[in-house]
Design goal:
Elements lengths: L1 E5 L3 H23 L2 E5 L6 H8 L8 E5 L1 E3 L9 H8 L9 E3 L8 H13 L5 E6 L17 H5 L7 E5 L11 E5 L1 H4 L5 E6 L1 H11 L4 H4 L4 H5 L6 E6 L1
Parallel strand pairs: 1-10, 2-3, 2-6, 3-5, 6-9, 9-10
Antiparallel strand pairs: 4-8, 7-8
Helix pairs in contact: 1-2
Bound molecules: 6-phosphogluconic acid (6PG).
């Protein structure tokens, strides 16, 4: 069952989502002593991160980590890590601990074992994982029919992270080499929040929901999140 929070405008969306994330992080800190906040890149979530960065939270007890990363260096315009340093790890949130998803390895496949070791150290469960979705129905870097997708979606795969080589599209651009949380990694969250804006993405989301069969998951990998009943999924959307 997916809880939907649909807003009239983006100000209301980001203000409410920031409040809800603060609550989830505070509760997890109270329950576990520390927690992890898993964040996506892309163009949508920056207002959420900027709002959260001003929050009076015990950020010393929050471990921020990426849901996925393009295999580019920090100074590359496509770096999700750089985005998080620009929009979240500022103001009061600068005291959070950040775990990178990028190593100096030449390929994401070669870098993945080291990233896996870092992610195994993250406090679990993750209080919140913020997910986006592309118009192709990808989430994180779980792209349709990507190299590495089957392993990343395999429920028997114990690894939290996976290397992905996506099929180039207008959505991936040239950033086809990725590291991502696997389905196993994502299901270490107490809740999965899908953050979308615009009518087009809502239509894609509804299309994804319309067919949650095994065969349909590889066409729109966000379906792997929508069809599972282990971790609550919440949609936050505004036009
Ligand atoms: C990435 C993101 C990715 C993103 C979606 C939506 O590395 O690109 O983590 O999964 O959430 O592609 O991106 P937009 O918010 O830009 O539409």
């Amino acid at each position: 069952m997916i809880k939907e929070f649909l807003f009239e405008d983006r100000n209301a969306l980001f203000s409410t989502l920031a409040t809800d994330c603060r609550k989830h992080l505070n509760n997890a800190i109270s329950d576990y002593g520390s927690t992890s906040f898993l964040v996506s890149g892309g163009s949508t979530p920056a207002p959420l991160y900027e709002a959260l960065s001003q929050s009076d939270l015990d950020w010393f007890k929050v471990h921020v980590a990426l849901v996925d990363e393009r295999w580019v260096d920090f100074n590359h315009e496509a770096s999700n890590e750089a985005l998080i340093y620009r929009t979240l790890l500022i103001n009061k949130a600068r005291h959070a601990t950040f775990t990178s998803m990028k190593t100096g390895a030449v390929t994401s496949a070669l870098g993945c074992p080291q990233v896996e070791g870092w992610y195994q150290q993250l406090p679990k469960p993750f209080a919140v994982s913020i997910l986006g979705m592309g118009g192709d129905g990808h989430t994180a870097s779980l792209f349709p029919h990507a190299e590495g997708l089957n392993e990343a979606l395999n429920e028997n795969n114990p690894l939290l992270t996976a290397a992905i080589m996506a099929n180039q599209s207008e959505i991936t651009g040239t950033n086809v080499e990725r590291i991502t949380l696997s389905l196993t990694g994502l299901l270490n969250s107490q809740r999965l929040i899908i953050l979308l804006t615009g009518e087009e993405k809502l239509a894609v989301f509804r299309n994804a929901l319309a067919d949650l069969s095994d065969e349909a998951v590889k066409d729109m990998p966000v379906r792997a999140i929508l069809r599972q009943d282990i971790v609550p999924v919440e949609l936050y959307w505004a036009p």
